[in-house]
Write a structure and sequence with these properties.
18 helices, about 15% strand, UDP-N-acetylmuramoyl-L-alanine:D-glutamate ligase, globular, 17 strands, alpha/beta, 2 domains, Protein-Tyrosine Phosphatase, Chain A, metal-binding
């Protein structure tokens, strides 16, 4: 490593450096590096911290963030010191690195950069690669009992895929990032199946037939046991979820309002339960920890951007649904609460997510407002107008909120289109610390 002056004396310098690195959310594939060579080399020079703790590795188009949080809640409830690495962050990069639901502190984040300044300068990792390395380093340094790791994009060449997990999970497979992962469900399935490790069990959610066939074939080639969430036989009645399948957790029940996502969260909980069961040889978890952990989910992780209520006294919600499958689930929930004409829909998209299919789902709502984000990847005004010809462009939600005739506190409002819209909404509403 070359000698150079210390660049990181304060957390502000760290934050400034991180802001200077191109991010996929801002610029797209140009901010990514689909090659594991740099990750392998960097981790090796750090002493391979990713090998110093057991982990569960989670990939998928939809549901992976929720499954990661569920797993983290269960293991924390069971008494284990639990690391959780997820992306993207909603408000602050420190959200990506949690131990027992608490974000990394400034002093620990600064310590990583001070200890590894020269190596960081030499290797020049992408934003996601660097945050992944920070997670490995932090979880190793803090001696977690287990870490739950969410992939960023795909699986096979994802920066997280240098781990050897106890169990892998593939929640769902859709046509997200087809320009990068492949132009068919089969190609995308093969990329996500890259997290399956030889001889290690893995769990799958409700997959389309073609995706399931590809994944099962790859699993068979690797001698990996495949467990399907449906075999847990999740049953939902009102706010009660119960699993009637076989195994250690047969009959487990929990209560959850699961606003906006009961149908999908039954499968998410089933995957959580099955992954936990397969890891029991290393980390025993009692059935009651499954129940209590999932019931504590919203208190441990109040900011999740999945049909999240933004204020306690009004029915304004945020949901990061950004592909046809997740948008359809969200709209089903909205229409179960009130007819389309009673909702105000406020949308903002990344350009690659705003498709004709997604727009047609939203266009059943007569009142649509749209906002153009200041990101290179964001959908521009012309694209928004083309897809939402009856919609109204807005430039400042503060102004909209302040006009009672435009958006009253008694109105039903859904903000959606992109997880990257969440921070803007919170800043506009003045509830960054809510």
């Amino acid at each position: 490593m070359t000698d150079q002056p210390m660049r990181f004396e304060t957390i502000e310098q760290v934050e400034k450096y991180l802001e200077s690195i191109p991010k996929f959310g801002l610029t797209g594939s140009g901010a990514a590096n689909f090659n594991l060579d740099r990750m392998i080399r960097f981790c090796s020079r750090l002493g391979n911290p990713q090998d110093r703790f057991p982990c569960i590795h989670v990939a998928g188009t939809n549901g992976k963030g929720t499954v990661c949080q569920m797993l983290a809640a269960v293991y924390q409830t069971a008494g284990y010191r639990t690391g959780l690495y997820t992306s993207p962050h909603l408000l602050d990069v420190k959200e990506r690195f949690r131990i027992n639901a608490e974000e990394i502190d400034d002093s620990s984040l600064l310590a990583f950069f001070r200890e590894n300044d020269a190596l960081i300068a030499e290797e020049k990792l992408t934003y996601f690669e660097l945050t992944t390395v920070i997670a490995f380093w932090y979880f190793s340094r803090e001696k977690v009992d287990i870490a739950i790791l969410e992939t960023g994009l795909g699986g096979r060449l994802d920066a997280t895929n240098v781990v050897n997990p106890l169990v892998s999970v593939i929640t769902s497979i859709g046509m997200d990032h087809a320009d990068i992962l492949g132009d068919s469900i089969e190609k995308i399935a093969a990329e996500k199946a890259g997290i399956i490790k030889p001889g290690k069990p893995f769990v799958i959610g409700n997959l389309k037939k073609k995706a399931r066939e590809v994944i099962c074939r790859i699993a068979a080639e690797k001698g990996a046991e495949c467990l399907e969430a449906d075999t847990a036989r999740p049953v939902v009645e009102d706010d009660t979820f119960q699993f009637e399948g076989t195994g250690r957790y047969k009959g487990v029940r929990f209560h959850s309002s699961a606003e906006g996502r009961k149908r999908i969260d039954a499968i998410n909980a089933a995957m959580t339960m099955m992954a936990t069961e397969r890891a029991c040889e290393r980390l025993m978890v009692k059935p009651e920890a499954i129940t209590e952990g999932i019931e504590r989910l919203n208190s441990l992780f109040p900011r999740h951007a999945h049909f999240e209520r933004l204020l306690p006294d009004v029915e304004w919600y945020f949901d990061g649904a950004h592909n046809a499958e997740s948008v359809e689930i969200l709209i089903d929930e909205l229409l179960s609460r009130a007819p389309a004409h009673e909702w105000t829909v406020v949308l903002s998209f990344m350009s690659d997510k705003l498709t004709g299919e997604v727009a047609s789902l939203w266009n059943r709502f007569p009142r649509i407002l749209y906002y153009v984000q200041d990101r290179e990847r964001a959908a521009r005004e012309e694209q928004m107008k083309r897809h939402f010809p009856e919609g109204e462009q807005i430039t400042d939600l503060k102004e909209v909120f302040s006009r009672e005739q435009e958006l009253s506190k008694s109105e039903l409002v859904i903000f959606s289109g992109s997880f990257y819209f969440y921070e803007k909404i919170r800043r506009w509403m003045g509830t960054m610390s809510a």
